Amino acid sequence: DVYKRQPIGIGDLFSISKLIVLPSETEGRGLPIIEAAACGVPIFCRRYQPEEVYSHVIGEHLHLELRLKTIDFKDPQLNKDIVESVKQHLFSPISFEKNCKHNRYVIEKRYSFEALTDEFKHIIYKLYLQIQSNHKPMDRAKKAFRKYETHLENNKVYTKDIMNTSNRQYLAGYGQMAFMVFLKSLIDPSYFRVEEKRIRGMAMQFAEELVDSKSNLSPIPIEIKHKFYNSVVSLFDLREGEIPVRMDHSFAYRHRNKIKYPYREYTPQELTGVINILFKKHISPPAVINIMNSKTIHDDWHKNIYSLLNHAEIGINHIEDLEEKISANIPLAYFPGKQIELELELFVLEPVRLRLGLKRDEKITIRNITSRELEPIYIIPPIEPLGRSITADVLKSHICYSKNEELKLLFEHEICKIVGSKQHSVGIHFYEIGQKAAHILKKIKDANGFIITLGDHEAMMTDIVDLERFHLGIVKHILASEIMRIPIGNAYIQHVPAGLRFTLSYPTPVQDGKSFSQELQGLKYKRICSKYGENKVLNILKKDAEKNGTPLTVLLNTLGKPKEKKRVISYTSLNGLYDDGLPWSGIMAKIRFSISDKSWRFNVVTATDRPKLVTEFMKAFVNSTKLNTRVAWNGGYILNPELVGKLGIPERFIGSPLGLIISNGKVLSPPLYSKPAFLVNANGRLEIKRVNCSKGLIITNGDSKITLGSEVYNLSEPNDDPCFYDMLYQNQEIPGNGRILVRMAGNIIKDIIATHKGQDIPVLPVGLTLSFPQNKFPKSWKENTTLDIRMIGWPDYDSAIEAGPQHLDNGKVCIDMDIEGWKTLNSIRTQAARLDYLDSRGPKIAIGLDKNGDLLIITINGRIRESVGATHHDIANIMKSRGIRYAMGFDPGGSSTLVIDGKTLNISPYNHRYEEDVYSLPPEPRAVANAVLLSEINGKE
User: Quick one: which of 196, 246, 303, 502 has the most CB atoms within 10 Å?
Assistant: First the structure.
């Protein structure tokens, strides 16, 4: 009863305690910490997870007078100091009364009702500032974009001597923000929204870091902060007209619009430059003047490197190559990071000692630096403030007043020089650094020197620069981890030869940072260098990277083989730039029938139960025929399950071919429009031309034979004779009026419909429709009957497949979507993606014939960093420029597949395991409905 009348409160409970012990590893200990502090009881607790929450409760982000004082630990194996502190708190509590009073004061200031009220007022005022809507933030955003764009244009011209961009786009960062770079975004049609949020999150995080980097001696008024933040938000809202070309991996494509947002023209790293311009406009930050260095500098260079990398596990390690390079008397430039003193020891003092042949304990003196001509070492920091980065002037001042006499000596004699960069953005942007820094880099290139970079952004931004480089750092960002292919937290000392891009076809990489380094350190590379000399090999690699973009392992395999005579079947990588500056890449295969002494056979194979990989078609065909099948590619168009569901068509029509297929001389599906077909006649002659069945058909089945001439083609008012309709019939209903209609899928009867007087039947965009007066309908015909079909006026063809569109006719671009029927409603209804659009880029595949009758197959990759894909006109012009006379496309997009000798050559931007890694996985071909196979029938080449 006493306890009911006078219940014990939290204060009473804590007041009987000498120490509050909170050993839990997980969140939930925040309130007991606050309660114990309010009651003036000492606290002994674990730094629970997530540690950021614990840190915030304690107030480690605040000034010392507002931080709670606790005894905390992370390791359950308590050290002696912690144990001793606990004993003192228990047995000499009076000694710590001051700490308890301090904690009560902190609770009063931070967690009282008054503090809570003030906090709510502060939050509401921040919301008020955040939602202020007027044109000013938008105007500031527009001006920042203009300034940054002008800055890039003015300084880009200075890089022509250190970067070859005739065939490749320089990517200063993860990738252009117009395009999705998460693998899952390419496959899951809704995941792009997650990626968009991540982009905005990275931008706002950088903006906050800039604000936090401002000295506390002159705090930024909250109103100014929010003007800045609102301007950053406006960067994502600013729009300017429409984009001229659709890209099927762009955010605009996912949003189903063509709105042009200026921020999408840049990479996330470049956007930091725009944000930094806004920050300097609003806040005018002073340069950081304190050069902190908490690292111990050892006598051993290797120990210092590992100290620089926080002794993290090294995922990519070229430390021996780096040591060899800094020992050579060649110029180098290093772009400084945050640990200036340690970096100066590693990349300035130690290289000079090694070049002079000094021992570790020997000093650099005037005498020994004048005894031989030393190549210069350049340091390239930013000229203007950029967050916590050290500016050129601050670094010069630091060295001038340094107590390190060796360092001062090197600067006085200009062995080491500081050259400022005009950069606004993070990392290293060669289009921003300015004329003076670019000139220095050209001198380094001409003297076969190299550069050293520190950090993730820097490693992502050197890209295709024509300078040998070493990237050092610890992976902190998930995209850097994926591109490097080493875990977050791993360190890297990465060597990248001049002109090479270390990761290819991201986010479905065929080469990543890890595999690239393994190739450079492998026995194959060393053997080839022993044979040809490393300089010659590196020159070959650079030239190929600029012209073709072949993966390193493929190119090394080629170099490792003896030189062969001209082969009948060959292929090469391709790359280039469109007029708008966007990149494309692909593969070109050539089958030189003109020099072959073998016989060749084409076959069109079709799936009977489910779509298959082209390699599966190839394997099954080889097993059944024992032929030496060398080349295969995906075929024409079919009605897939998704389209059947969308159109409300019965499931029995799934897999219906949507164009001409002839295999082994038999017509499996007649033409439905006037689209092009690849045709192989009986004597092996190849043709590419538009085909249709307007001249008529001859249909047989058993004893029945029906001739349907051109006069009964697509009749809106049929007479008393049989007639037929293809997909070029312009009405949406076929007249029935008591006739019997036969719906076909390929050469198979799917529906037999007896109509009544006045009844019309809707057109299904799946195949031909035959129409008979009741008294002329063949009684033996049943559903699922297979018919023998021949087109009137056609020669005998052994194989044929319809796809399209046609690109070239006698060397001239001849794309005409209207003539071929792509613009008809029936065709549009059966397009999984709008193939009739001429302004849409994506993966493409096309074949062509040259003047010698040789066959060329070109695939253009899409949805990857190095290639935005191609429009129909793009690939037509690419083929025309390579001497092709007649050309046509095949089923594009993810279906595009080219296989030679069992190996898939093109990049398919797909992997069915995308839920396991939403960012990137190796490419994986998609299953298709049919394929074209090319086999040798008289042995091997």
Answer: 502
Phi, psi of 510, rounded to the nearest 5 degrees = -95, -5
Asked if residue 536 belongs to a domain, the reply is no
Do residues 790 and 780 lie in contact, with contact meaning Cβ atoms separated by under 8 Å?
Answer: no
Measured distance CA(841)–CA(271) in Å, rounded: 25
Q: How far apart are CA 431 and CA 934, in angstroms?
A: 47
Radius of gyration (C-alpha) of the chain in whole angstroms: 36
In this structure, is residue 917 part of a structural domain? yes
Q: How far apart are CA 185 and CA 254, in angstroms?
A: 9
Query: In the predicted model, is pLDDT for residue 132 greater than 60?
Result: yes
Tokens 């008591």 correspond to: 738
Phi, psi of 97, rounded to the nearest 5 degrees = -60, -35
Separation between Cα atoms, residue 138 and residue 661, nearest integer Å: 57
- Shared-domain flag, residues 174 and 55: no
CA angle 606, 611, 612 (to 5 degrees): 85
- Say whether both 747 and 699 belong to one domain: yes
356: nearest Cα among 320, 329, 322: 329
Distance from the Cα of residue 629 to its chain's centroid: 34
Helix (H) or strand (E) holding 590: strand 583-591
CA–CA gap between residue 410 and residue 398 (Å, rounded): 14
Where helices occur in 161-317 by DSSP H, the ranges are 183-187, 192-213, 222-235, 251-254, 268-283, 301-308
Residue 755 near residue 740, CB atoms below 8 Å: yes
Q: What is the pLDDT of residues 564-614, one digit of tens each?
A: 778 999 999 999 999 999 999 999 999 999 998 889 999 999 888 788 999
The domain boundary, picked from 521, 553, 579, lies at 521
- Asked whether residue 311 falls in the same domain as residue 209, the answer is no
Least confident of 39-43, 228-232, 276-280: 39-43
Strand partners, 864: 867
Q: How does pLDDT run across 797-852, given as a tens digit for each residue?
A: 999 999 999 999 999 999 999 999 999 988 888 876 778 788 899 999 999 999 99
CA distance 151 to 476: 29
Q: Which of 476, 467, 410 is nearest to 443 (CA)?
A: 467
Give the number of domains in the chain.
5
Domain edge (last residue) among 252, 283, 314: 283
Expressed as residue numbers, the domain containing 379 is 301-521
Is the pLDDT score of 4 beyond 70? no
What's 426's domain CATH number?
3.40.50.10880
Length of the chain: 941
CA geometry: angle 368, 373, 378, nearest 5 deg: 100
Within-domain flag for 565 = no
How many Å separate Cα 147 from the centre of its chain?
27
| 547 Cβ neighbours under 8 A, 6+ residues apart | 167, 575
| Type of residue found at 57 | V
Query: For residue range 281-324, what is the model confidence (pLDDT) as tens digits?
Result: 999 888 777 776 667 899 899 999 999 999 999 999 999 999 99
Orientation of helix 405-412 relative to helix 392-400, angle to 10°: 120
Which is nearest to 111 in space by CA: 188, 214, 34? 34
Residue 525 backbone zone (phi > 0: left; psi -120 to 50: alpha; other: beta): alpha
* pLDDT at residue 937, as a whole number: 85
Residue recorded with tokens 């111990």: 296
Contacts of 563 (CB under 8 A, 6+ apart): none
- Tell the burial category of 664 from Cβ atoms under 10 Å away from its Cβ (0-12, 13-18, 19+): exposed
Does 379 lie in the same domain as 493? yes
Nearest Cα residue to 44 out of 72, 17, 67, 64:
72
Residue 217, pLDDT score: 61
| Buried residues in 850-887 as b, exposed as e (16+ CB within 10 A) | beeebbbbbbbbbbbbbbbbbbbebbbbbbbeeebbbb
Please report whether residue 837 resides in a domain.
yes
Q: Is 529 helix (H, G, I), strand (E, B) or coil?
A: helix
**Which range, of 296-310, 637-651, 672-686, averages the lowest pLDDT?**
637-651
Q: Whose CA is closest to 585, among 727, 455, 740, 464?
A: 464
